[in-house]
Inverse folding.
């Protein structure tokens, strides 16, 4: 049959295109359907553009503060259009790389909006006559989009989602309110603070980064305060008003007291939701709970031939998690050995200093009944941290006090997002703090903080015997 494939994948983001490459490696005939650009949210409206702009902002901040390092600079300014042009160049280069991967793997790419008509049939709306393709299996990797709470005034000009603010090439908001103190909110708080904006973060829960270890949120609040960012926690936004020539008025309740804040722009960063609009024909019967597609341990939906991975399934909404799930789903659906360990997924926040977490927190380990202990090293004594002016951080490891096995780690320090890879490997391999303490790490580096934390944990175990 014409247009018949072993696998059709809906979405060319990290979960989709990596799954396609894996299926191609297994010799399968694969098609990918994408309504926008390849790379999905991560490449086009998320991870990559945000980090590209953060890089530019960090260069500006370093230049402004360079006198402390003995470097004197003249008048400095920010060319917002040039920052965004560089961001677009980075995106384009990576997008071309994904195009090459798909083409070299003999994977067919269909541009358009997908609609699943039957367990083996997908229609592609390409703006013309459209086309229908058939497959033995279908993998949904359509990702997510910003979730916007029903706040009165959310439709006003300069009230934005992360998608919107990333496309603003005109100017920097001199006063920015961010609704949401999670990962997205704090990365944009760092970005705009580095560019000299007056930033206020409003978080409904009682601390920043509420899904991470409590000490991480506390440390981040202190560091943002040092950068001039105001964080308001235990506060709910009631409405947004047009303040006329003064901008926008954000009205909120903080611990039962009505407050307001006048700003130039408001970023709503309250999470993301699955992008499932128009995906299923009525009566297809795919089970959905709380807005997410329900899947089993093999990523199979309630229809035997339809699978789903990434943001549409809930759980960990991270690009690298979607990639791992996509590869695992393909391996399982075609009966091959799964090549990735899905049990250990690092989380990263690209603030300054960076934040990274993997495995269990101490509270999580104790709640599971494990004999867990924590070992923490303050980076104020780390040579590289002092050199780089990032000494207000820490390395915290969680370990089994009976066996020494590493259970988790939380990092607030320079290059934390790179260091966490070693810790993820150690947890996956079941290594102990004694084994990890025996490793020689170079000096002066941030990684020496790991050594100190491991040594303290190993010493504590030895002393308790």
């Amino acid at each position: 049959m014409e247009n018949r494939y072993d696998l059709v994948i809906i979405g060319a983001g990290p979960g989709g295109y990596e799954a396609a490459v894996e299926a191609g490696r297994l010799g399968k005939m694969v098609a990918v359907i994408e309504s926008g650009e390849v790379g999905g949210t991560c490449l086009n409206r998320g991870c990559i553009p945000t980090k590209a702009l953060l890089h530019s902002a960090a260069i500006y901040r370093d230049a402004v503060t360079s006198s402390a390092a003995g470097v004197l600079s003249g008048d400095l300014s920010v060319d917002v259009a040039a920052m965004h042009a560089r961001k677009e160049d980075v995106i384009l280069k990576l997008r071309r790389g994904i195009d090459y991967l798909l083409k070299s793997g003999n994977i067919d790419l269909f541009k358009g909006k997908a609609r699943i008509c039957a367990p083996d049939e997908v229609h592609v709306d390409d703006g013309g006559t459209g086309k229908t393709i058939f497959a033995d299996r279908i993998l949904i990797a359509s990702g997510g989009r910003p979730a916007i709470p029903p706040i009165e005034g959310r439709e006003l000009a300069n009230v934005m989602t992360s998608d919107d603010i990333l496309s603003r090439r005109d100017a920097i908001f001199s006063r920015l309110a961010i609704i949401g103190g999670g990962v997205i909110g704090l990365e944009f708080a760092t970005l705009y603070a580095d560019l000299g904006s007056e930033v206020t973060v409003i978080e409904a829960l009682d601390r920043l980064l509420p899904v991470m270890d409590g000490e991480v949120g506390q440390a981040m609040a202190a560091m943002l305060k040092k950068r001039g960012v105001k964080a308001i926690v235990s506060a709910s936004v009631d409405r947004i008003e047009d303040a006329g020539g003064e901008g926008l008025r954000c009205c909120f309740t903080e611990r039962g007291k009505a407050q307001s804040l006048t700003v130039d722009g408001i970023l709503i960063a309250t999470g993301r939701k699955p992008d499932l609009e128009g995906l299923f024909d009525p009566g297809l019967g795919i089970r959905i709970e709380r807005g997410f597609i329900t899947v089993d341990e093999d990523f199979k939906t309630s229809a035997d031939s339809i699978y789903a991975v990434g943001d549409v399934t809930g759980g960990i909404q991270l690009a690298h998690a979607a990639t791992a799930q996509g590869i695992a789903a393909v391996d399982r659906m075609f009966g091959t050995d799964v090549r990735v360990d899905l049990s250990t997924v690092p989380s990263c926040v690209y603030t300054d200093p960076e934040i990274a977490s993997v495995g269990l927190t101490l509270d999580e380990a104790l709640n599971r009944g494990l004999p867990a202990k924590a070992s923490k090293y303050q980076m104020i004594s780390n040579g590289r941290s002092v050199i780089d002016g990032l000494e207000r951080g820490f390395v915290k490891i969680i370990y089994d006090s009976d066996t020494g096995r590493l259970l988790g780690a939380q990092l607030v320090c320079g290059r934390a997002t790179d260091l966490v890879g070693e810790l993820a490997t150690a947890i996956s391999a079941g290594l102990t703090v004694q084994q990890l303490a025996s490793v020689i790490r170079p000096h002066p580096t941030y990684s020496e903080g790991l050594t100190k934390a491991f040594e303290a944990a190993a010493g504590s175990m030895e002393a308790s015997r």
